[in-house]
């Protein structure tokens, strides 16, 4: 249970009822599915031998459906990985599901013959910078928006949510023109600005709900002990908000790591491309190399699998709290 | 220009026993040794100057040649040359961005006439007429605009038709002289199984992109309909021209039935790889196919041949083409840029051409006689093909060279717009995807060209 | 209570930065849409509503709008139907439930590029897996990129594969909020599974679904990457939508003003649709369903 308990606090700042309602509804999915009991299905597995045939058939049907869901969700990814592990000369012929023994030559030539390592480094750099800047800045903004007294707080927070829904092209067309004037075109600095523009509103929105739910007593206690408000923020609030910050970090990472539109338009040279664009342009390059393309795609997905395995909870929590990626 | 979207791939050229690096070392060494004393008089470069060079030839070998040349230039003359490599798809945007930001490049590789014209009209280029007139050039190589050369070419990218000699021998086919013969050959070589085409007779891309504009219209150019009259009126749908274009579309409709599926998304990559993997019996491409065969399927590297696209009756042959060259931007240091370009052309032009030995087909005629260029082992191996390619561009060649961006009475931006707005690819799509009659396809295309102005 | 100036400073600074990098471009986009900024070289020239008029006169614009609406609606319908279905299955108890739930979300966090490359690889008409499977049944591969219906269908299917997990997760969360007593009472009354679903589950999910459909609708309408990666708007502009049209105008035809105009119109349309949607499905009321 992480970014979850903000519901009760939302109405506090709800100046405009409809806005507040929208905010509430998007952040209201407030329980982690896997933690929660499943009230609608309390039947136990035990003793189904004695059950009527209808019930057994029901179980079989359920498991069949589960298997279909698994295949549907995961088979395409499995197929990508299997294909990337085939020997290049068999790639176009082989339709077997087995990848043993794996042949790493696609990976080898990917790393040797393309700018993949440079592009990987660019992507990693962008993702890291986006995580750090987006998390820090959105913490400042969200904290200010919950603890400072001023008019238009709701509008500010609501506008964050709305900013997140603007057509990407409405951001990237003017950005490409502006960056051209400021000498930021084809530069990773420009791309960082774009990635911040898509991840900051989301971060503010998430952390705002988080700080909102945090009782003021804690900071007050710290401030009574002689801490400044800033000190209390750093020493008390931030450590307690670690789950929220992690969620923001994960989504900032996802947005930056997976971004195609902004990198496609703002980056031109091979040396500055990030992975998604570099990979997509391999398909249009002069030689069709599916083995290397699939190897590259598998390598992009790899860090995501790792993060997903360890941070599944945060991912689902963030998702149900309104952290969305289009 | 090499009209490909991007070039992520560095061609390693491992397939032949001669290490490129060794070659570069020896030739660079020879050049330094031979010209060390000669070079100084004509290059009075000003130390401390930095030139910026936008390069769109992103193959690793080409980049290496540039890097070596620039390092050498800096160590000799103290002028630093920074090379920025950007695939051709992003080059225009990057050039524009640099001009807008007030920091234009000094020098660039460039192939698309529309862009050169725009820069020239905007007053951003300086002519290279003096450099160009020192040599003789192949067909259309030394084109002028407003009386000046704005462009120092280095290569042609002719779209020749590649065929499989082994398959031709197997079926007893001859090189086609007319559309009917070409169609028969394509049909004879098509292999179908279960309703799928296992091996296509030919490929002609039809997606709305530059690959289609570049490659698909050889047979049309051979039939030579007029697109514009001398006063730039669109006459494509005037009776005789409409007939010619319509006939071409009928041919395309028939050829399409022998092509493998998926052509609507086919780009440069598939044109090459379908041939290299034996999935088609004919393809359309520049010399880079030969490089790809050597690197990826050496078995086929001595079983291919090329020919020019015929017309319907066997009277005329044509080839679509594009070219690449250097342009010099107007900056405070243009004098220095010209000095560098002249030096590069004298010292490294041949290394540069060798970096894509078959794709960089020389435009300058003297290169074909140059022993340094000829001694490249791969050029020697494919000498017959290279000579055939040369015969297409010789000044007395009977083969018509054309391109969608050159279909007007003179070099102008109007045909470039036709190229950019994909009028011609859409004509093909109307024919085979929308099943419109050839007459209507031509009419629609003519009207669209008119609208472009 | 005194306000710490450092907190104020960081807050104001942060807001200014967000304003500059999000608000700035948005305003500039609207400004650009009133200028002809064609070749990039010449300075932009004020043309008033010229760009808008030329966009609205262009039949491609209306086709693109229609395509976008068709693709969005079919994708949303499928995503929601499939999402609710999968969520109902995953809401039952079975061995390995946690693992399967995790697995079912995986497509959602894959980069779109990867998902599209997988789709292209499997659907390749010359080398793809689907072709081999069809061939083993003796049937021939369809050339999906060459036909309007199959090209649109492919875009929809790939979008459904990527974004259904979002619906699943939200619906799973929504299912937890339906009191179990309702089902028990229904069972006592002899209501079958279908009746329970229709009278309890669906009304219980109403508020979740209203928000999910709204959000997915916004994103599908703004979708650029899936379409660009799969079809580039082809064949014959049959899968062109407003985002790809804006991209084509701005970056392939070098008409930044026109591209900005398309983007602005598309945003205005979307805002209108959202307002109408909220009128019919007010979220305030939806809240009471909880």
Q: Which descriptors would you attach to this protein?
A:
A: 326 residues; mainly alpha; 0% strand; disordered N terminus; B: 453 residues; alpha+beta; 9-stranded mixed sheet; 3-stranded antiparallel sheet; 19 helices; 14 strands
What does this 3D model show about the protein?
The complex is a heterotrimer of chains A (326), B (453) and C (290). With 326 residues, chain A is mainly alpha-helical. Chain A is built from 15 helices and no strands. The longest helix of chain A is centred in the first third of the chain and has 32 residues, at 53-84. In chain B, strands 1, 2, 3, 4, 5, 11, 12, 13 and 14 form a nine-stranded mixed sheet that branches. Chain C is mainly alpha-helical. A two-stranded antiparallel sheet of chain C has the order 1-2. The chains are: A mainly alpha (326), B alpha+beta (453), C mainly alpha (290). The interface between A and C is large, with 106 and 115 residues.
List the helices and strands and how they pair.
The complex is a heterotrimer of chains A (326), B (453) and C (290).
Chain A: H1 7-10, H2 17-26, H3 53-84, H4 88-91, H5 105-113, H6 116-147, H7 153-163, H8 168-181, H9 188-212, H10 217-224, H11 229-240, H12 242-258, H13 261-266, H14 275-284, H15 290-320
Chain B: H1 20-42, E1 50-55, H2 60-77, E2 80-85, H3 88-100, E3 107-110, H4 113-121, E4 125-126, H5 129-132, E5 152-158, E6 160-164, H6 165-171, H7 179-189, E7 191-193, E8 196-199, H8 210-215, H9 218-223, H10 239-256, H11 268-276, E9 282-285, H12 288-296, E10 304-307, E11 309-310, E12 317-329, H13 334-354, E13 361-362, H14 371-374, H15 377-381, H16 383-393, E14 400-402, H17 413-420, H18 423-432, H19 438-452
Helix pairs in contact in B: 1-2, 1-13, 2-13, 10-18, 10-19, 11-12, 18-19
Chain C: H1 5-32, E1 35-36, E2 45-46, H2 50-57, H3 59-90, H4 97-109, H5 112-123, H6 129-136, H7 148-176, H8 180-188, H9 193-221, H10 225-230, H11 242-252, H12 256-280, H13 283-288
Antiparallel strand pairs in C: 1-2
Radius of gyration of chain A: 24 Å
Q: What string, H for helix and E for strand, traces the elements of chain C in order?
A: HEEHHHHHHHHHHHH
**Quick one: how many beta strands of chain C?**
2
How many beta strands in the DSSP annotation of chain A?
A: 0
Low-confidence stretches of chain C: 285-290
- Helix-strand pattern of chain A: HHHHHHHHHHHHHHH
Could you report the average pLDDT of chain A, rounded to the nearest whole number? Answer: 80
Q: Count the DSSP helices of chain A.
A: 15
Biggest contact: A-C, 106 and 115 residues
Distance between the termini of chain A: 24 Å
How many helices of chain C in DSSP terms?
Answer: 13
Portion in helices of chain C: over 70%
* Percent in helix of chain A: 55-70%
Q: Overall 3D geometry of chain A?
A: globular
How many angstroms separate the termini of chain C?
37 Å
Structural class of chain A: mainly alpha
**Residue windows where pLDDT falls under 50 for at least 5 positions of chain A:** 1-48
Instruction: Outline the biggest β-sheet of chain A.
Output: none
In what range is the share of β-strand residues of chain A?
Answer: under 5%
């Amino acid at each position: 249970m992480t970014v979850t308990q903000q519901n009760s606090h939302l109405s506090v700042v709800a100046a405009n009822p409809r806005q507040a309602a929208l905010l509430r509804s998007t952040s209201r999915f407030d329980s982690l599915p896997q933690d929660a009991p499943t009230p609608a299905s309390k039947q136990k597995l035990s003793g189904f031998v004695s059950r009527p045939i209808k019930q057994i058939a029901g179980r079989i049907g359920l498991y069949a459906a589960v298997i279909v869901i698994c295949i549907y969700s995961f088979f395409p990814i499995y197929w990508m990985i299997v294909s990337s592990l085939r020997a290049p000369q068999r790639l176009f012929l082989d339709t077997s599901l087995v990848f043993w023994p794996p042949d790493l030559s696609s990976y080898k030539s990917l790393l040797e013959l393309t700018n993949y390592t440079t592009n990987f480094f660019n992507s990693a750099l962008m993702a890291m910078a986006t995580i750090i800047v987006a998390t820090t800045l959105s913490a400042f903004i969200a904290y200010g928006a919950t603890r400072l007294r001023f008019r238009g707080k709701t509008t500010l927070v609501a506008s964050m949510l709305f900013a997140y829904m603007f057509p990407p092209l409405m951001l990237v067309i003017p950005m490409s023109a502006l960056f051209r004037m400021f000498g930021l075109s084809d530069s990773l600095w420009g791309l960082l600005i774009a990635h911040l523009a898509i991840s900051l509103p989301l971060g503010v929105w998430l952390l705002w709900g988080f700080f909102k739910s945090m009782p003021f007593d804690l900071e007050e206690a710290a401030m009574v002990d002689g801490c400044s408000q800033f000190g209390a923020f750093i020493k008390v609030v931030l450590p307690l908000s670690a789950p929220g910050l992690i969620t923001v970090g994960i989504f900032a990472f996802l947005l930056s790591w997976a971004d195609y539109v902004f990198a496609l338009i703002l980056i031109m040279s091979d040396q500055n491309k990030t992975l998604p664009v570099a990979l997509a342009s391999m398909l249009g390059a002069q030689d069709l190399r599916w083995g290397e393309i699939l190897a590259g795609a598998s390598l992009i997905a790899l860090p995501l699998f790792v993060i997903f395995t360890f941070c599944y909870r945060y991912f689902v929590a963030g998702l149900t709290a309104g952290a969305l990626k289009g | 220009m090499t009209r490909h979207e991007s070039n992520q791939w560095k061609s390693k050229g491992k397939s032949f026993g001669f290490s490129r690096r060794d070659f570069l070392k020896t030739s660079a060494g020879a050049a330094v040794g031979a010209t060390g004393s000669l070079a100084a008089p004509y290059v009075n470069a000003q130390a401390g100057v930095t030139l910026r060079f936008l390069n769109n030839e992103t193959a690793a070998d080409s980049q290496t040649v540039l890097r070596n040349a620039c390092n050498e230039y800096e160590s000799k003359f103290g002028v630093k040359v920074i090379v920025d490599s950007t695939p051709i798809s992003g080059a225009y945007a990057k050039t524009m961005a640099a001009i807008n930001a007030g920091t234009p490049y000094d020098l660039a590789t460039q192939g698309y006439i529309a862009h050169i014209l725009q820069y020239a009209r905007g007053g951003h280029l300086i002519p290279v007429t003096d450099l160009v007139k020192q040599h003789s050039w192949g067909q259309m190589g030394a084109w002028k605009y407003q009386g000046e050369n704005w462009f120092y070419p280095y290569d042609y990218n002719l779209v020749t038709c590649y065929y499989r000699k082994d398959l031709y021998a197997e079926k007893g086919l001859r090189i086609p002289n007319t559309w009917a013969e070409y169609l028969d050959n394509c049909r004879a070589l098509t292999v179908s199984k279960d309703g799928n085409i296992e091996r296509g007779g030919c490929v002609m891309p039809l997606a709305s992109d530059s690959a289609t504009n570049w490659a698909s219209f050889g047979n049309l150019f051979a039939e030579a309909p007029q697109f514009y009259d001398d006063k730039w009126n669109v006459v494509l749908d005037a009776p005789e021209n409409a007939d010619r274009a319509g006939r071409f579309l009928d041919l395309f409709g028939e050829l399409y039935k022998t092509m493998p599926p998926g052509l609507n998304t086919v780009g440069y990559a598939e044109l090459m790889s379908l041939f290299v993997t034996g999935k088609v019996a004919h393809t359309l491409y520049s010399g880079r196919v030969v490089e790809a065969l050597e690197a990826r399927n050496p078995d086929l590297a001595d079983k291919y041949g090329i020919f020019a696209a015929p017309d319907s009756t066997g009277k005329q042959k044509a080839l679509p083409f594009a070219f690449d060259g250097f342009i010099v931007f107007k900056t405070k240091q243009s004098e220095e840029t010209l000095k560098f370009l002249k030096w590069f052309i004298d010292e490294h032009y041949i290394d540069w051409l060798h970096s894509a030995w078959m794709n960089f087909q020389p435009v300058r005629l003297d290169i074909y006689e140059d022993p340094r260029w000829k001694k490249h082992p791969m050029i020697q191996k494919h000498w017959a093909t290279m000579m055939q390619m040369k015969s297409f561009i010789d000044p007395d060649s009977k083969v018509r060279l054309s391109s969608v961006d050159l279909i007007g009475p003179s070099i102008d931006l109007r045909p470039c717009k036709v190229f950019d707005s994909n009028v011609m690819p859409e004509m093909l799509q109307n024919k085979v995807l929308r099943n419109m009659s050839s007459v209507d396809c031509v009419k629609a295309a003519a009207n669209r060209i008119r609208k472009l102005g | 209570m005194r306000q710490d100036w450092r907190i104020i400073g960081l807050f104001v600074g942060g807001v200014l930065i967000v304003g500059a990098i999000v608000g700035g471009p948005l305003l500039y986009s609207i400004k650009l849409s009133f200028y002809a900024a064609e070749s990039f070289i010449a300075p932009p020239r004020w043309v008033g509503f010229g760009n808008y008029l030329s966009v609205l006169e262009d039949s491609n614009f209306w086709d693109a709008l229609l395509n976008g609406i068709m693709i969005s609606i079919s994708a949303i319908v499928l995503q929601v139907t499939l999402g609710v279905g999968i969520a109902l299955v995953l809401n039952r108890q079975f061995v390995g439930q946690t693992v399967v739930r995790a697995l079912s979300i995986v497509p959602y966090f894959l980069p779109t590029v990867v998902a599209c490359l997988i789709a292209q690889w499997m659907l390749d008409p010359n080398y793809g897996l689907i072709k081999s499977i069809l061939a083993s049944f003796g049937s021939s591969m369809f050339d999906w990129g060459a036909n309007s219906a199959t090209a649109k269908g492919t875009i929809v299917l790939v979008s459904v594969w990527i974004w259904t997990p979002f619906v699943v997760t939200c619906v799973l969360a929504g299912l937890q909020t339906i009191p179990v007593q309702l089902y028990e009472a229904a069972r006592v009354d002899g209501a079958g599974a279908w009746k329970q679903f229709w009278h309890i589950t669906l009304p219980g999910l109403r508020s979740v679904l209203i928000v999910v459909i709204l959000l997915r609708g916004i994103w599908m309408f703004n979708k650029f990457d899936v379409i660009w990666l799969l079809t580039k708007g082809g064949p014959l502009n049959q899968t062109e939508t407003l985002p790809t049209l804006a991209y084509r105008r701005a970056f392939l035809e070098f008409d930044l003003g026109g591209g900005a105009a398309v983007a602005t119109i598309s945003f205005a349309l979307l805002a209108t649709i959202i307002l109408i949607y909220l009128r019919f499905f007010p979220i305030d009321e939806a809240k009471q369903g909880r």
